[in-house]
Every structure is written in structure tokens, then in C-alpha cells.
Amino acid sequence: MRTNQIVRWLSSTLISLAAIAFIPAPGSAQQDLLRITSPGPGSMVRPGDTVTISVSADYSVEKLALIGQHPLGVGMVLSGAAPGIMGRGLGEGRPMQFTLKIPTEIQPGIYRVTAIGRTSGGDVESEALTLDVEKPEPTRIWAEPALLHFTRVGDQIPVRVLGAFADGSSDELTKSTRTSFQSANPRVATVNTSGIVTAVSPGKTTITVRNPSLQYSIPVRVE
Predict the structure, then answer these.
(1) What is the pLDDT of residue 163?
(2) 95 and 34 in contact (C-beta within 8 Å)?
(3) CB of 127 within 8 A of CB of 26?
(4) DSSP H or E segment with residue 10
(5) Neighbours of 35 (CB within 10 A)
(6) Burial letters for 39-65: b for 16+ Cβ neighbours within 10 Å, e otherwise?
(7) Deepest in the core among 9, 20, 22, 120, taking most CB within 10 A?
């Protein structure tokens, strides 16, 4: 496969992955051909880190790439394959290593990384690796909107959680694994793990947003 063919294949694969919101888990046969062996699922990384990711690929995998969920981008081959972003399967005993740069401007949360390859029988895909991107502890957190007013039962309002940090920066923390939500009275309003508040019945309550060291309360009124 020549360079221009590799680029076309990778570009078409990226477009296909971006065009769908959910990618079904690959079958066991695909996982036998292609596996991300390290780091472990849910490994915590910081914005700006460079992560080394090892991929075990069967010899039948002719071309291999590592693709991260937006905005992570594409991994670069570190060892065990030709220079660039593409590699070739070298067997279980010789995993390839890719490096993936975590953008400095990225919101905390869980991101997926997938290895994809090509065999004579078609494209194969590994089970996704999840990376937990987190910043240092914030010095202050707050929520938007700061007050929730519902005029109808059943309505929903999403809450955004933001944090300020010691270096003077700020960022959204809604999807951070360190962020949690709790309703003081679920009979009036409930909140899910994504911060979406639902009006249940008339009354007043509060939604409390927490991270390991701070909390913020949002007054809620349902008419």
C-alpha cells in the first residue's frame, strides 16, 4: 500500500468514525487480531501529557493506526513499525507503540482511543481504550445556570459545571469523573450523572454539585 493509498484509507476511516455517534463493540474475532494492551482502561492523564499506547496486532494486520476521540487525534508510531502514523502487525510478542498527545485545550472527561487495521478480509477494530483526562483540583467551582426555574413538570435543563484553577485558567468540568450531582429532594427535581435536571412536581429544592474538595448549590423551583 503506497503512501497516498494509506492516507486515503486513513482519511476515509476517520470520516466513517466521525459520522456515527456510537460504534458497536468489535467481535471477539477482531479483538483476537487487534488489542490495546497498555495503559489500562480508565488511566488518568493530564492535558498536555504524551501517552504511550501499546497495541498487539496479528501478523495478518497489514496496516494499523491509532485514532482518538475528538480532539485527541491520531497516534504516532513510536517503535516497531515504519515511521509515521501507520504500523504493521508484528504478532502478540511484539506489540507496537504509539504516542498520543493530549491537547492542552481539552475539557476533562472520558475519551476513547481505538486501534484500527486492515487485513486481507477487510478492516478490523480493537476494543476501545478509555482515558480519563483530568486537570489538577480547582480552587473554585460554579454552575450555569446558577438558578433553575421550571414552569412545567417534565421539563429538563442541563447544568454546566465550571472550575477555576491555581494557574488562572478555567474550564468546564461537567463531564469530569470527579464531578457529581445530587438532588436534595428527588420528589421535586431529579438530576442525572450528566447534570440534566428534570422537574418532577411543584416545590423547591437544591441541586448540589461536588468534586472531591468543593461543592456548589443550585436553587431549584418548580411551579
Answers:
(1) 97
(2) no
(3) yes
(4) helix 3-18
(5) 19
(6) beeeeebebeeebebbbbbbeebebbb
(7) 9
The yes/no answer on whether domain 140-222 falls in CATH 2.60.40.1080 is yes
Sign of CA dihedral 45, 51, 57, 61: positive
For 19-64, where are the alpha helices, taking DSSP H only? 28-33
CA angle 103, 107, 113 (to 5 degrees): 60
If residue 171 lies in a helix (H) or strand (E), which one and from where to where? Answer: strand 170-172
From first to last of its 223 residues, what are the pLDDT tens digits of the chain? 444 554 555 555 544 444 333 444 555 555 678 999 999 999 999 999 999 999 999 989 888 899 999 999 999 988 655 446 777 887 777 888 999 999 999 999 999 999 999 888 889 999 999 999 999 999 999 999 999 999 999 999 999 999 999 999 999 999 999 999 999 999 999 999 999 999 999 999 999 999 999 999 999 999 9
Q: Would you state the CATH architecture of domain 3-133?
A: Sandwich (2.60)
Q: Which residues of 107-141 are buried (b: 16+ CB within 10 A; e: fewer)?
A: bbbebebbbbbbbeeeebbbbbbebbbbbeebeeb
CA distances 137 to 141, 164, 217, Å, are 10, 9, 18
CATH 2.60.40.10 in the chain, residue ranges: 3-133
Which helix (H) or strand (E) segment is 16 a member of?
Answer: helix 3-18
